[in-house]
Amino acid sequence: MNRQYYSLLFVMGACLLLSLVYCPPFDLQLDDKDIFRYTGMAILRGNIPYRDFFDHKPPMIFFINAAGLFLGSWGLWMINTALALLSTLFFFKRCRQYHLPFPWLLPLLFNLMIRDNLISLGNNMTREYTAFFTLIFFCILLGKSKYRLFLLGLLTALIFFTQQDQVLLLIPLLIHMMAEELALFRRNFLHLTAGFLAFTIPLLLYFALHHSLTWFWADAFRFNFTVYTTQKKSFWDHFRTVKHYLDEGNYEIPFLLALVLGVASLFLKHKRKGLVLATLASLFLTMSPEFMGGRMSAQGGSGYFFSYYFLPLSASVCMVLFAVFAFTEDPVLAGKKALLPYALLLCLSLGYTALQHGTHLQRRDQEPVLNRPELTYLRQQHLKDYQLFVFYNGQYTWFYTDLKILAPSVWIYHHFWGQYEQWDMDHRLLQSIGEDLLRHQTTFVIMEEALIGQFKNPANRDWWLSFMRTYYQPVFIPDSSQTLLWRLKKERL
Question: Least C-beta-crowded within 10 Å: which of 15, 64, 133, 405?
Fold first, then answer.
């Protein structure tokens, strides 16, 4: 067995080991992941996305969760880990094919970045999946398969329907590829389009056959343009947000090295400066979600965006560094001696972060939300579908999947009432929730009354509290530190 096979075993083993720290017994509890898990359960129970539950994410994350839950309690982890291993294998083969001095280095860096617990907050997030798909896209772009263009179109659609904004970082790569093969522009464009449509048409047919295209358009697209990205903050606030997470998440050194070496390569001897320029453009476009609104500022918080929105940097940083090292002709960047200092800078700090995380794992079953006395009480009630509703506290969405029941309303999370002043000004949506609860005779509601004070519109706050006090009453749960559970009044049954 030669040295290259040892390198492959090393990097694949590292990928598997770094994935194991997010296996089900140790995966972190997070609102978004619990909502995605609920959507997967709902699909397996016959619900249709957007028609039967609201979410403004594209649909692929729901189907991934449905597939994972279908495979069992470890299903999501197996899908996620399989994609990580596939991305790592593809990338290692490209690094070896283009004779990088250390073919294991950039695949290892990719895994250290995408499993960085300071950024990722666990696994199974939309931008984690788009990072896998983007790196595979880049590897196929550099290949010579006769199906290359079709696969690139297919992956473009897959990324778009997993997280729309992440398709932006593919645009410079596609422009570069089309410019390099300008004589074949028409053929290449048709093959790309065929790949894109091969994924898109079945997806649209699925919603059309379930009479859900209108909801699909309204929730996954129109909502994001008309509501979700409308809050603003200044350029310097965006800059501070980016710097904060690059620094706090341990991404600063890899990002700056990729940026500096990429720009330097444009002025040094290099065989493919166009590819370097394209990957640099992708590097900046990776952070486009931060510049699409000011949602965290609107909540009155620190103004910092969600850290896991920076996860795709794990792919774009590695793409820039690959373009730099694979095609350089300058002795400053060529050879093992030149690359060794960069290898240490790229991996030491992230490696230490991974080691610290791996040696201080917290078991999932010790998460406070999963051990609430209210959950124990609800388990004893043998609830059926629609008998529980979780309002304005996404961390308790976990209760639905734990109890294996469906929510009585399509509105499975509600932070918009606390985020946008113009949201639901006429209480129409709140009234629809109230009507659903009464129609289904929903027995229990999870609600922290103090949190309702965060509503931007006082009239909405007053309407909802009035509804709850009229139809529901608090339930005292022994060992509970707060009033969280409400029960339908007997006279309202």
Answer: 405
The strand pairing partners of 446, in sequence order, are 390, 485
Q: What would the mean pLDDT of 409-429 be, rounded to a whole number?
A: 90
Contact 273, 333 (CB under 8 A): no
Kindly state the helix (H) or strand (E) to which residue 487 belongs, with its residue range.
strand 485-488
Strand 485-488 versus strand 444-446 pairing type = antiparallel
- For residue 194, what are the CA distances in angstroms to 63, 141, 142? 22, 16, 20
Strand order in the sheet with 472-474: 388-390, 444-446, 485-488, 472-474
Confidence (pLDDT) at 297: 46
Which of 393-407, 413-427, 463-477 has the weakest average pLDDT? 413-427
- Which position has the token pair 């699409």? 292
d(C-alpha 135, C-alpha 156), whole Å: 12
Backbone angles phi, psi at 155, to 5 degrees: -65, -35
Helix (H, G, I), strand (E, B) or coil at 54: coil
Q: Choose from 150-154, 228-232, 234-238 the range with maximum mean pLDDT.
A: 150-154
Instruction: Kindly state the tokens that stand for 71.
Output: 């495979």
CA distance 37 to 442: 22
Q: Supply the pLDDT for residue 300.
A: 39
